[in-house]
What we know:
The chain is an all-alpha fold. It is built from 22 helices and no strands.
Amino acid sequence: MTSEQVEEQGPPRDHVPGQRGTDAAAAESGEGYQRGLGGRQIQMIAIGGAIGTGLFLGAGKAITKAGPSLILAYVVAGTVIYFIMRALGELLMYRPVSGSFSEYAREFLGPYFGFVTGWTYWLFWVVTGITEVTAAATYMNYWWDIKPWISALVFTIALYCINLISVKLFGELEFWFSMVKVTAIIGMILIGLGVITLGFSEAGDTASFSNLWSHDGFFPKGVGGTLMTLQIVMFAFLAVELVGVTAGEATDPKKALPRAIKTVPWRIALFYIGSLIVILSVVSWTVFDAGTSPFVAAFQKIGIPAGAGIVNFVVLTAALSSCNSGMYSTGRMLRDLALNGQGPKVFTRLSRAGLPILGTTFSAALMMFGVWINYEWPTKAFDYVVSFATISGMWAWIMILASQIRYRAKADRGELPQSEFKAPGAPYTSWFGLAFIGMVIVLMGFDKDARVSLYVAPIWAVLLTVAYFVLKARTPNVFKTGTPTS
Length: 486
């Protein structure tokens, strides 16, 4: 079987006559969606997925825990992220489909893992959308005294409408959201380098690369302190895999997706490692505190009065970008589940523009309900749900790596065609990635702030397992073939 046939027919499965509907074929080939995302948009979606509030805000807390050695944590974690993205790229070139993570888990690990992955990734983006639109409403209060629920309502409705018009409009909006973030970081790096090398501004007298080691060394909190920041670092990278969801709607996935994935190393080197090196050289790590954005602190030290406002605007766009991505991905995940008989059939419907209108509507409604709960009952129970985002995002990475390992083994045996975009060093790099993620999950158990994720995840796993076996008992043919009955 050629790679072209694989794209058209999907993976080899035990065929049962009369049980492969047209929607199932669409799920495997990507048919039904309109390929409206160009290479320029996919590039920026890939870049934007790696730049979020985890960098602009979360890095402050990580700096207080590890000092300059946080740079090393980003180097190691960024390398693992590259392994994950190359593994995803290999799978995408084997079979580019919109429901990528759950589709690959279903094919190579079994229907149970496809079911769990699809619903988990869907919930990940619903929860993320709730938290990000709530955060965006809070950021608006920096300039205007607007009731948060009003801002949240306006943002949610606006992004929902955009996602129902066309996938091209979604891509264009995401392009400009990402452009704002990229411009801010590059501007900060250039200004910081100017302060360090030329000595201008209020920070010129103390700015120096020696700040990276002159205040109790490069590891001021020890190696243990650096290790304990890994969960914060990995959280900052969540959503980098979103480019895989665009596979079914890319105008030329064979070219656009590999190009986007190949940029991962320099994106991490520039936006994370580069910006941290400059910021920690301009401002000593001892100045930061957990509640302050390192970008705000750097702007203030340099003497740019509008610095706080600039960062607030950038973080606002980052939050809206994340919510926009959530609107996009949840509809696709629900449709993929429905096409495979693992979700309500109503979610298989597409609008005339080729958009999963009902899946997106259902997810947006849950996001609105979550915002209302957040403002009416800001209890610990809600915090437990929000904490689920980190562990569920890493589950998608685990499935990508495990699926790539199984795919490579089958391809090497000649059972499947080889991918045109092989992951270098795989499957060893994939095994290393799995071990690293496992270590991060263990470390989360030692952090009181992150430990809550490990309490919520088993509850969700039990609920999904029960739902799986109930569905399997009612429609056993679905899980024999991986496709819905007609």
